[in-house]
Here is the input.
Amino acid sequence: MTPEQQRLAESATIPWKKFGPYLTERQWGTVREDYSPDGNAWDYITHDMARSYAYRWGEEGLGGISDDKQHLCFAVGLWNGQDEILKERLFGLTNGEGNHGEDVKELYYYLDSTPTHSYMRMLYKYPQRTFPYQKLLRKNKRRTRKQPEYELLDTGIFDDSRYFDVFMEYAKAGPDDLLIQLTIHNRGPRKARLHVLPQLWFRNTWAWGEGTPTRPQMRTPAPGTVQADHEALGRYHFYCDQQPDLLFCDNDTNYIRLQEPPRATRYFKDGINEYVVDGDPSAVNPAKVGTKAAAHYRLSLDAGASQTVRVRLSQPVHEAPFAEFDDVFAQRRQEADEFYDCVQESVTDPDARNIQRQAFAGMLWSKQFYYYDVTTWLDGEPNGPKSSIRRRKGRNANWRHLYNADIISMPDKWEYPWYAAWDSAFHCIPLAMVDADFAKQQLRLFTKDWYMHPNGQLPAYEWNLADVNPPVHAWATWRVYQMDKKLRGHGDLQFLEAVFHKLTLNFTWWVNRKDKSERNIFEGGFLGLDNIGVFDRSAPLPTGGHIEQSDGTSWMAMFALNLMRMALELAGTNAVYQEIAGKFFEHFLYIADAMTRGGDGRFDLWDDDDQFYYDVLRTPDDERTILKVRSIVGLIPLFAVEVIDQELLDTVPEFTARATWLLENRPHLAKLVSHWQEPGRAARHKLSLLRRERLSHVLRRMLDETEFLAPHGIRALSRYHLEHPYVFSTDEDDFEVSYIPGEAESSMFGGNSNWRGPIWFPINFLIIESLQRFYAYYGDSFTIEYPTGSGQECTLREVALALSDRLTSLLRKDEQGRRPAFGNDELLQTDPHFKDYLLFHEYFHGDDGHGLGTSHQTGWTGLIAKLLSLPSGGAAF
Here is the structure.
């Protein structure tokens, strides 16, 4: 057992995870901080206001950390002597400012982290010239949705290497003893100056009038030292090497600048900014006390030179805080290497190891303290903005039970600094590779009473908690359980059982609320695929009626199989679960029958002409129109597949008897949907929506390079629609779906993501996994032409491995040493200070593979970590 593995094992009783990268990168512009009457969160608190506004629900910072309740925070401030403000937070455009929605306009990279955060490393690239805030705003404002985004690199500010590389490293000497090292490199051709401000502050828990909290305090008991006292945390000591100037103010709103009612505070949150940038000594407290403090380092770096700033945040008192500093850092780095040597044992290629380790780093750095009490937020604060009736009945008004105050894995801590239910499920797969306990905790969290709605719905995201996401929580739970069982040698049945019971409530909610006609065909509404359909599926249809969704129904079939398999596992220790497993077996069969024959026996979602699955529009007068859009909606039926060994069936006789009775007495179910009664490879049994013939038809289209198969994965929409757009006409409008391989060309769902052509990791991951499951049943007896038209027959295992290789090639170096995800940017492709630092984009161009959308969504793009460990022998992963 490595030292990091030992810390993980101890973390239930020793708080090794108490401090971590739990600061968000953007608190401004979030729903939580929005107290406007009209729900315009982006304009209520802006980037310009952020330095002066004391937040209610969380804190943000550059490369920062906090404790797990975010009482005490640390982050880095920088000033190049040119900007009008300190660089204390990442800059980006709001949804209305970007031509493709919100977008961070910075360069930063998560390079390393252990799961207990005993060692962490991050890089921020800070220009030496004036940061082009206004140019980025102006240029993007002029661009249309059909033009690419104007990025920081496009400004040319990095072209002559006049920038600083700021490496931020953390090493824990103990659970409450953090060593922090900032190493700054001048990459430019001439000498440059930089102000570096390690900042410590308390989250404002005193100004909003909630209870009677004691105001915490920071003061300086000795040169170069800050003493921080907090009622809940106790006393911490902040030691600053070389005894820099210490600056103090309060984490309180500058009511003068923001034109708010007067308060007793004199030294505001932005006081350090005004002191350093504006030279205003009255902005900081001369008594050197407050709730926010900074150590002020003034560096002068020769061309190519580097300097280091060292600070230490510790609960224990240290007489010589920097005596063993370098030794501890060296030891923690070595221990991080030892930990990942174990994790990456099967990954031998150096480039793949680098990609995987940075993927893990991004996953672990993207943890965030997420705080949202809907009742308090709706009703307003005693000392804050008053709530209107309109607001109390508005956004999330039906979710008053929800109370979140936890460390949660975020999709991206700038663009998506809030959880999204189905994203979170995918996050747990790579997280389980390094910290199965945290992955399990995340999955349990969403089923807790203070998250899950009393009616059984899981919360979607803060913009609308009642939105509907694909029900993948059960899939993730089963996958994490399997991974954990393989790692530990035994399964965590308590975890599995706890989540299973709550997910049965969620399943019932789906059946009661989203199967309106009670025919096992599901409408679902918005299902996380944003603009995939002809219409906005979360809004009323222009034709009236509803859409019977191929994907919504397929997700539910998958959900039923997941719950069935979980119940069979639990039946190993409690026979009662055999009957429950039989219930989900039966429900799957009826969903599958509806997909195959139609819920009313007249129509189905399968089109015999195209040999593909489509959504179906049903109007109020019961007219039926097939929406012939060739998208991943028609591929998602692949995901509903389960393969069970005869050995398992022998241990669950009650379940086996029920399954046999159903198939003998409901022969149409046996005939149309399953090979359950025909044992396959190694005497396995299969349940799926697709029998052999339909599976072949779907795969031929999916593996066609003129349709779904791209050089770097499976597209979300067939390339067929480039020349053949699908158009649906009503009396008032035409609705068109065409192949768009890059960024979205409409504002549907904010316009910052696109499912009409690009490559998305989560869907590709599920395709690869499903092919492996089919192979587990068919073995080498089933082959398919890959690519379609090539004349090359492959097994499903070989196809799965080939698709995985295409997908991981997005970030891997090709034969010319170039990464497709970097596109045509020569700086990213060739510069030694850029080319091996990875960005994990939200999605990728459907033709050339360059990265699009948010740039740090290791959330589900972090699935690449699992793919890089995929056994070449084809064993299920």
The radius of gyration is 28 Å. The domain at 18-333 is CATH 2.70.98 (Beta-galactosidase; Chain A, domain 5).
